Hints:
The protein is mainly beta and 427 residues long. Among the domains are: 49 residues, no CATH class; 108 residues. Helix content is 13%, strand content 35%.
Amino acid sequence: MSSELPPPAAAAPAAKPPSIPSTATTTTTTLATAGDGTTTISSLGQDQLLEIFLRLPSLPALVRAALTCRSWLGAVRSSRPFRRLFRALHPAPPLGIFLEVDDSTAPSFAPLRRSDPDVIAALRRGDFFLTSLPLGDVAPRGWTVTDCRHGYILLWNTFRAVAAVNPMTWEVDTIPVPDDVVDGGTSEFAFLSFLLLSSEENPRSFGVVCVCADVSRVRAAVFSSGTRDWVIHPWAEIGREYGLMYGANTLVDGSVYCPFYEGRSVIKINTATMDFSSLDLPSRVIDYGQADFIVGDTKDGELCMLYASDDFYLHAWIRGVDGDGIGIWVPQLILSLSAEIDRTSGESEGKLRVVQARSGCVYLYLTCITPAGTQRSWLFYHSLGTTEIELLINGTFDDYAYPYIMAWPPCLIGDDGATGHEVEGSH
């Protein structure tokens, strides 16, 4: 998968990773030597140690190395620049895909088979079958995944409860949705989405954004794991009735984007200020009458919009401004995926749609009905800026697919230089 660094060419030396910026907590020391004049790894200064860690192949490998001793763990915890650079050089791999299959009480997990023994070990230790989810009286109707980011999975139960699960740590936080969210609603009230507010640099806390609609109004409610409270905001008019769909909303850089099909626009909700605004759709999306567009971001953090047409073309726009400073959608690419889909799946027909676009990582879902009347489904990965796609899984499942990306363990994050954990062999 494209998250792995390609091997260097045989005739060229391996490229040197960028240097880590020096900080107050990263100091360079002169290497000490043992009594016989040799230099040992324990003699390395923190800067040299982090330069070596940058050459590890993946996050699981870094975790295993950092937990070797207290000083190595402290080096990783105390350097935010190192963590930022390591993420850029070695994007964490997707460990698997959470899928909705039939009407089961919990989503299914399809692990992605990899040769990396550290990734395999992470899968074996985690609770990816979600056995820690409460059932019975608390959640009698089963759970549905609504979001997945920074190591958390967010699930919704129609008995008005959400659950934030970290399968790597087996932690589960069940959160009742207060009745006040529905206050002022009519018989047309509906929940639209539950989305996670989380950060790679603060993995111990999270928020939940609930977006709901009632005829021509929308409302947002925000839960904080720090305060354990919901903040319920007033209803806001959007000018037209209906047109908002469950599960179609996305969260990008702290704002929720809700496709408003009837209004041919996207409703933007800033979760920090709770300001509501509207973004027009690109003209081509309107011309095609395409309702399956997705709002996401590129690897550089730019807001983008994507959709896949019936002839297997991927269309992408980047949000920019015109000469008058007015926001517009700038065409970025029109890429034919027909040959790649045929190469990876053997199919040349079907319905293709984009299901997620985060940090330039695009996931596409293809489904078709066979001559025998059965459904077949495929999930692909595509990196914006390239021309290839990778087949992740195939089988029979719907388009609610959520890739689970391994997050940095909390024990590796902290700027105070303290480990906060006892590490075997650190004394």
